[in-house]
Amino acid sequence: xxxxxxxxxRHHGDAEVGDGLADFAVNVRTGTPPAWLAERLRASVADLxxxxxxxxxxxxxxRRHGRSAGEVLLTSGAAEAFVLLAxxxxxxxxxxxxxxxxxxxxxxxxxxxxxxxxxxxxDFTLDPDAVPADADLVVIGNPTNPTSVxxxxxxxxxxxxxxxxxxxxxxxxxxxxERIVVVDEAFMDCVPGEPETLATRLPAGVAVIRSxxxxxxxxxxxxxxxxxxxxxVARLAEAQPLWAVSTPALVAIEACSSPDAVAEAGEWAxxxxxxxxxxxxxxxGRGLYVVPEARASFLCLRVPDALGIRALLRQRGxxxxxxxxxxxxxxxxxxxxxxxxxxxxxxxxxxxxxGI
Length: 356
Fold this sequence. Notes:
The protein is α/β, with parallel strands linked by helices. The protein folds into 2 domains: about 15-30 and about 260-355, Aspartate Aminotransferase, domain 1 (Alpha-Beta Complex); about 35-260, Type I PLP-dependent aspartate aminotransferase-like (Major domain) (Aspartate Aminotransferase, domain 2, 3-Layer(aba) Sandwich), CATH 3.40.640. Helices cover about 35% and strands about 15% of the residues. It is built from 11 helices and 12 strands. The protein has helices at about 35-45, 55-65, 75-90, 105-110, 155, 215, 230-240, 245-255, 260-285, 305-315, 340-355, and strands at about 20-25, 70-75, 95-100, 115-120, 135-140, 180-185, 205-210, 225, 290, 300, 320, 335. The strands form 2 sheets. It has a 7-stranded mixed β-sheet with strand order 2-8-7-6-5-3-4, with helices on both faces. Strands 1-11-12-10-9 form a 5-stranded mixed β-sheet, covered by helices on one side. Strand 3 (about 95-100), helix 4 (about 105-110) and strand 4 (about 115-120) form a beta-alpha-beta unit.
């Protein structure tokens, strides 16, 4: 069991870019949003005088994952979902599985909750037994940022406890608390076919968080959603400000949930996988340790003096994501976004000039 240490949980990839640097730090797909989506967003401006109506987008998300509308809460990006969960849930023992995106832990701590860390071992694969049996809130990413590891759906589902009344649902003692497992699937659409998603299965006690930011290039729009038991969705909705999701974001959510958009994302995921595997092989061939079986839009690698290499890359016009702000990594780790072949080859050339 890991213990909290002094890392900057609020450091994210966007802090690495700027000043004309080639961006290998932020995991948003380049060349997005696509033209058809950008046109719909421009057209949505004509409806800004009216208050947002989330119902069409909510139904579209439900259809996309085979859920009911009552199991869907639309949010202003995944970050809002983490804040809402931190405000609504009252865990006695909250556990975050690391390394992973740090915003869930930051949101829990900001809401006054103590947080324990389970740091994954070799190759960052998940062992459900590593999570304390009495943890009543568990947060995990899949595929995980920054490691790019895709955990088997069965292993993630094994973290869930049988449903029973408990403190998290507002029940009274002496009922034991029900465990809630929050799965951050922000990068699941990087995986062709999404075979390990829990969005379509949604076991009891599991809440899935999805984001449109990465695949569709909507970081500035803020568009995401939660899939969960209708009781939890209702409680989150009560804590959410009115009209929290803007009309353009609702248009994007509805459009990106259509069968055509899902198919387009799937085709991109296939191309991404091929280029990611090529880049990983190039880096591994240079003697670097790249976390194996990467499945998201980035690679996590161990490099001696990673912070020094990061600084040298910045001098040469390239931004990569430092790894030492992720609990469970450290000063010898970097995260590198996978770009197009020409951009990746340019980065490889610069790394070669640095002796890597």
